[in-house]
Each structure stands twice: as structure tokens, then as C-alpha cells.
Amino acid sequence: MPDPLTIADAADALRDGSTTSVALTTAAIEAADAGDAGLGVFISRFADQALEAAADADRRIAAGAGTPLTGIPLGIKDIITTAEGPTTAQSVVLDRAWGQGDAPVAARLRAAGAVIVGKTSTMEFAIGTPDPEKPFPIPRNPWDPATWPGGSSSGTGAGVPAGMFLGGLGTDTGGSIRMPAAYCGISGLMPTFGRVPKSGCVPLGYSLDHIGPMARSARDCALMLAVLAGYDASDACAVDEPVPDYAAALDGSLAGVRIGYDRLARVSGALEDPALPGLFDATLAALAAAGAEVVEVELPYYAEMVTADMVTMVAEAFAYHAPDFETRWTDFAAGTRRMLGSALYYSAADYVQAQRVRRVGQKALARLYEDVDLVVTPTAATGAPDLSEVDDLLTPERMATIFTGYWDSVGNPVISVPMGFTAAGLPLGVQLAGRPFEEALVLRGADAYQRRTDWHLRTPAPTSVPATA
Amino acid sequence: MSETPDPVATLVALAEVSPPEAEMAALRDGYAAQRAAVRALYAVAEARYEEPALIFSARP
Hints:
The complex is a heterodimer of chains A (about 475) and B (about 60). Chain A has about 475 residues and is of the alpha/beta class. Chain A has 15 helices and eleven strands. Chain B has helices spanning about 5-15, 20-40. The longest helix of chain B is centred in the middle third of the chain and has 22 residues, at about 20-40.
């Protein structure tokens, strides 16, 4: 387990000489040696290259150069290309010749001096559920290896609390950064759509895909976003907006900030975990203690935005995979087939209507944001499901317990941070969402909350990590 | 247009994919609820004259 636990603290320690990148990276490699067989965090590991990069980072830091990410061990979800080798998207279908070299986000992290320790597990093509019939690891949750870490950024979510890296990249099309962040007790930011270039990432939903940081704290996410954000012409959806100094905005105060909250209990109903209401109340109290004014709101067009996210995601993904579906249907994982097969329900007109309703939802939400600066909801109504029950998540009743797809439909920035534990000791998360391109305020709200809580610093007991799968 | 007796079979044939029978059954089970959810999108009055959130540029 690397020490310190956070990127921010590690960056300070690297500069005051109390640690080195080689030491941090070695600790991360040792944690992976001990735990990866049981937790299924990695698809591929780059220990030798990582140690070389760490030694180079130490030289840069000793020379007074580098960035806050220099020398920091990170993991990258294996649907994003890196120079070290083929990307799998956790699929036997994907052409291994696809995607040579670093994606823009990987190149930016590498240029900032980050140490890439490996490619992390997902669900096939970032959708579906784990499939034991396929030749890939089954990701497990460090808080209870009998449970799922969430997905689809499963390995990045599990690897942070397990100490296998200090942060990493996930992708989010319906909640794939925030769901594993919540289930694994870490922070995960979905930036505004277009804020971070997504070229070099295997597409799931062209108009929904986001790449974003996952790490212990909102401050760590801010440090990573400062490197990841910015226009790149290789992504037709990338937006040329100035990149502010996200970390500089983290002053711990929410004075003058008005926060709307929606419990969404009307959506999850009886499946809501009994611990959630009290923890959510405590979260609101902590935000108020930071100076925020907290008022109840109702997210407009909630059901319609969730439907639009699903219609758009599966239709766009089906178009991408159609040639392989025709000839290699059973080579896809069962959960992938089940999820993407639902694209057959929808017509071309349905797809266009979903895009019209997304505009309606965006405008209604913009009106809500005339009254409040941030919106807070639970990330999911329950803790991580048992792996034996994970396929049940694909039923409408269980999917309704995950409150993430709304924000993909509208494209606003949103972070999930830990807000406590269920009675069974499984993490629960809370989302803070802002106006488009106001990641700085989203991060400031989450950081202010984390200055008053320590949920994000909790670590699962090593004894809960099995030596083998 | 009249409803076919097995719309899922028609849609599967149109897509030229071949799910095994168990997956066909699952697709049939989910069909009605998903269609109802999509029909609800057409019931959003504000969408009547809304432009879709699609991206197109004359520059490739």
C-alpha cells in the first residue's frame, strides 16, 4: 500500500523528500502482486516500464521540475489506448490492431510525469456484467470480495482502495465512473461532455462517453482534471473552453453557494438501503456547515433522461458493433448481448426523439440551475451487490437504484464521493453536480465536504483481500 | 401499421443477428416495458418543436 494515500499528499511528500516515486511505485506493484489475483484489477501490468518512469520522475523532481502528477502511479481503464500494448476492451471481439499509441488523455498524463502501472479491468466494451465464460478477470470489491466493485470502470475503482495505484482513468456513459467510485468508497468525476477528449477510447455511446479521473479525494480529481482537460481536434465532441486552475478553487468554503438536493427515494423505492437516509442527511449537514444554503429540489424529467440515456447508449453502441454482432454474436459476453440487444427495441425515430428530449431536459435543468449552484443526490440507493446477483442489476427495478444515467443524458459535470457505509460495511456515495463547465465549483463542493469527513480516507482491511480468486 | 405477432423476432431478423432462444425469451420479456418508456418520450410536450441534440458539421 503506497503511503501517503492521496495524490496530493504524495506530491507533497515527493517534493519534501520523505518519499520517492520509485518507493510509491514499488509499493503499488507489491500491492498488485499480493492482491490482483483475488481482485481482478488489471488486464495488463507494466511493472518494468513503471519503475523506469518512476526513476525518471524522481530525477525530474530532484531537478525542481515536474507537475503534481509527476511520479504518481496511475491505472488506465483498458478501453483507452496506451503505448505499452494492445487495448482489449475486455473483449475477444475487439481487433487488437485497433488503437496504437497513447490516447490524448494517456499522452497528457505521461507528459505530466505520471507513472502508468497498468490497464484496468472493465466490463466488455464498458457495458453489461462480468462474464466467467470469457478469458478475463472477474473484478471484485476490496471492501468485500464477494461483491462487485461496480462498472464499467471496475478495475480503476477497486485498485485505488486496494493500494495498487493512487488514481486512474475511468469512462462514464451511464455511470461507469461514479457507480464504481460509490461502491468502492472513492471519488470519481465525470467532467462536462466535451471537457476531456475521448479519442483513443473504444466508443460506447458517441454522444455520451466521458473520460474522467478516479482517486481518493476531490482534490486528487482536481489535480488529474487539470492535466486531462482541454481541447483536442481528434475528438469531434471536444469543446475549446479555457481550463481553470481547479485546485486553486478548493478553499473549503461554500459560503454563498446554494445547493439543491433530491433524495430520489421515489425512484428506488423499497430497495433503498436503510443506512442511506441518515447518511444523506449528515452529508447535507456537512455541506451546510461549510456555509452552503441547502434546499430541496426535484430533478426535472428524471425518468425521461434515464430513458434517453439508455436509448442513445445502446443505439449508438449497436451501430458500432453491428458487423460483429451479425457474425460473432456469441463471442460477445452474455451481459453485453443482453444490454446491447435492447437496441433492437428502438427505431431511428426513437433515437432522434431521445435527442430532442435531451434538449428539453438540458433546458429544464438550466432553469433549475438559475436557482441553485449545485445539485446533490445519492449516487446509488444501495451498496455493492453480491457478485452472484450482479446480473439482476440489468432488471429495471435494480437499475433504478443507480442514479447516474440522468447526468450523462444532460452532460453536466458530476462527482461521486463517499458518504459512509451500509450496515454490512459497504461504501455508499453521494453525487454533486454543477452547471456545464463548472467543474471547479463541483470539486470545491466535494472538497469542502471531504475536509469535514474522512470517508474517502478509509481503507479496506487487507484480510478481506483473498490471495487467490 | 398492424402489430406483428412477434415483433422481437421481426426486429432480430431485421438486424441480422442470431440470439439463442433463451436470449430471445429475455428480449421478449423486456420489450413491452422498454417500448412504454420510449412512448413516454413522445409524450414530452416541450419536445414537440425541439431540435435534437445531434452533431453535424459541414467540415469533416
